[in-house]
Amino acid sequence: MFDGADTVVLYEELAYQDVLPVLWRQMPNPADREVAAGFAERNLTVLQAWEAMDEHGPVEKTEESAPYAADLMRLDLKINLLLDLVGQILAANRPRPPAVPVRFNALGGMWRSTGPLPEAGEQGIAEIYLHDCLAQPLRLPGRVTSVTPDGHVKVRFSPVGEAVADLIEKLAFRRHRRQIAGSRQPRRGQA
Question: Is-contact 151 110, C-beta < 8 A?
Fold first, then answer.
């Protein structure tokens, strides 16, 4: 049974955790209003695209009353294969930073840096690539709050906007819900 011990939290809020390409870009000053609005608009598009790709319809349950359900499932699988292929081509042509363990929510992010370490208090932008098929990363401006000697960087993001915050919250919640569902299913060989 799920006891909540593995709940991923950052800044006292549910957070999304994965191994993803992450890059920190230093900025001399905080993002001005126009730049922040541009980031929010692009982040909204990236998150909406990820949400559309991440939707999982019923895989095994098809009703006889839905005569095209099997055809739609086959089409969905083919589109997913095509997206994966395009993602591989895109990743090969646009090198990305190395994938590292990362956790983030609308308030901030934390990852282990593989490059030069930023300093606490430094302004910049965290770029988080959610999937190979998505050409653009999330670009989240913020300030480094701490850096550990072993390379863990913790950043507090500037306000991301309500629509972006809602989609990041959904992303984290879905991951958390799948984690709970996975922990409730009996493991093979156990009964």
Answer: no
Dihedral over alpha carbons 83, 89, 95, 97 (to 10 degrees): 30
Tally Cβ neighbours within 10 Å of residue 83. Answer: 15
H or E element at residue 34: helix 33-54
* Per-residue pLDDT reduced to its tens digit, 91-116: 777 788 999 999 999 999 999 998 88
What confidence tens digit (pLDDT) does each residue in 6-25 have? 677 888 899 999 999 999 99
CB atoms within 10 A of CB 77: 11
The tokens of 112 are what? 């282990």
Cβ(59)–Cβ(73) below 8 Å: yes
Residue-wise pLDDT for 38-72, tens only, equals 999 999 999 998 888 776 554 445 555 577 878 88
Say how far apart CA 62 and CA 89 lie, in whole Å: 33
